[in-house]
C-alpha cells in the first residue's frame, strides 16, 4: 500500500529515442479518428431511421430527432457511474445490440474504449508520463473499427437492402454482405493500415489472419 510510484515512463521520455512516445501519440490519434467517425455514424443512422423530418444544413442531411429515438434515449441513455455521458450514443448502441447487429461483449468493449477515448482527449499527458496509466494499445483502435464495420454491414443488409423497392431475390443473392463497405470505412481502413505499418504485433496478427483466410 505504501509502494512508491515509479518513473519509468518519465525516464524513457528524458533518456530514450522518442519511439515509444511517437507510437503512443500515433495510436491516440488513430483511436480518436476512428472512434469519432464511429460515434457520428451510429447516432446519425438511428436519428435518420426514426426522424420524421429531414432538412439540408450546410450541405449535409439534418434530422429532426423523432419521438421514438427520444424515448430510447430516456430509457437506455443513462450509463453507470464513471462512464461517459453521451446518452444519444449509448442509446443508439443499445438499439444496434438489441437488434443483433453487435454482441453484448462488443457493446461492453465500446463502452470501455469510450472511457479510454475520454482519457486520451483530456489526460493524454498522464498516459504518456504516469506509470499508473495503462498505455494505449493498437488493438483498441482495430476493435472499434471492426465494430464500426460490422454495424455498417448489418445496416446495409437489414435496413437499406430490406427497404429497397427495386431489390429482387436474384439481386439479393448476388450481394456479398461480408465484404460490403462504405467509402468512409474503406478510407479509415487505409488510414489504420498505414498508421500501424511497421507495428510488429499488428503485422503478425494480420499475417496470421491471411494464412487462415487466404481468399479474404
Can you describe this structure?
This protein is mainly alpha-helical and 216 residues long. It is built from nine helices and two strands. The chain has a two-stranded antiparallel ribbon. A hairpin with a 2-residue loop joins strand 1 and strand 2. Helix 2 packs across helix 4, helix 2 packs parallel to helix 6 and helix 6 runs antiparallel to helix 8. It is globular and about 65 Å long. The model has no long low-confidence stretch (mean pLDDT 90).
> Count of DSSP E strands?
2
Strand content: under 5%
Side-by-side strand order of the widest sheet:
1-2
pLDDT average, as an integer? 90
What's the helix-strand series?
HHEEHHHHHHH
Radius of gyration: 20 Å
Which stretches are poorly predicted, pLDDT < 50 over at least 5 residues? Answer: none
N-C termini distance: 51 Å
Which percent range fits the helix content?
A: 55-70%
User: Structural class given helices, strands, pairing?
Assistant: mainly alpha
The 3D shape can be described as: globular
Tally of individual helices: 9
Main sheet? 2 strands, antiparallel
Which labels suit this protein?
216 residues; mainly alpha; two-stranded antiparallel sheet; 2 strands; 66% helix; globular
Strand-helix topology:
Blueprint: H1 8-15, H2 19-50, E1 53-57, E2 60-64, H3 67-76, H4 87-98, H5 104-129, H6 138-160, H7 169-174, H8 183-195, H9 200-212
Antiparallel strand pairs: 1-2
Helix pairs in contact: 2-4, 2-5, 2-6, 2-8, 3-4, 5-6, 6-8
